[in-house]
Amino acid sequence: NVVRGPGAEDCAIWCSAIGADGYGRFWVNRDGVRVMVRPNRYALAASLDGEPLEPWVRALHGCDNPACVRVSSPGEIG
């Protein structure tokens, strides 16, 4: 579901469901409840050893490409 550019600094584009705001989305079941997840936030949480992000934490993109899910460094997307 992700296409990466050839360079290490290139975007990794989410190639599945995209919302009207341009950000990716996918759904998971948590305790029988269907929950929408943003892939950029999921990637950031995964880079932080899987620690869940608080709702107010933003996974911002240095590349300003909402479909990008590349984690530049721990704690930073794009």
Give an overview of the whole structure.
By secondary structure, this protein is of the alpha+beta class. The protein is globular, with a radius of gyration of 12 Å. The chain has one helix at residues 39-47; strands at 2-4, 12-14, 26-30, 33-37, 71-73, 76-77. Strand 5 and strand 6 form a beta hairpin. It starts with a strand and ends with a strand.
Termini Cα gap:
17 Å
Helix content: 10-25%
Order of strands, main sheet, comes to: 1-2
Q: Count every helix, treating DSSP H or I runs of 4 or more residues as helices.
A: 1
Structural class: alpha+beta
**SSE run:** EEEEHEE
Report the strand count: 6
Low-confidence parts: none
